[in-house]
Write a structure and sequence with these properties.
Blueprint lengths: L1 H8 L10 H25 L16 H14 L4 H21 L4
């Protein structure tokens, strides 16, 4: 509480004076924090009959089909790519072992 009073008066906790830029920066941070909180609280207001989970999907039929297609494609791991990664790892490991150590 004491440091807050000093800051409001433009003084640092050690008693020296803060620069104007520091004071402006502190004021902007406070204003930004308050605005962000107000926006979050405003968005929290539910209309009559709404529950927090009631959100309409902003996706139309064509986009929904495209999204479903992407989800179906991404559901399966491409084993060819996994095999390539494992193969490269084994080759690099073998080359390092054959090269030998020695720092």
């Amino acid at each position: 509480a004491e440091s807050r009073k000093l800051r409001e008066q433009g003084l640092k906790p050690d008693g020296s004076k803060e620069s104007e830029l520091t004071q402006i920066n502190q004021q902007e941070k406070i204003v930004d924090k308050n605005q962000a909180g107000d926006e979050l609280l405003k968005d929290m207001d539910l209309q009559e009959g709404e529950s927090p989970g009631d959100m309409e999907s902003p996706v139309d039929g064509e986009q929904a089909q495209e999204l479903q297609k992407i989800l179906d494609e991404e559901r399966v791991t491409p084993m060819f790519n996994v095999n390539i990664l494992v193969g490269l790892f084994v080759v690099i490991l073998a080359m390092n072992l054959l090269k030998g150590g020695g720092a």
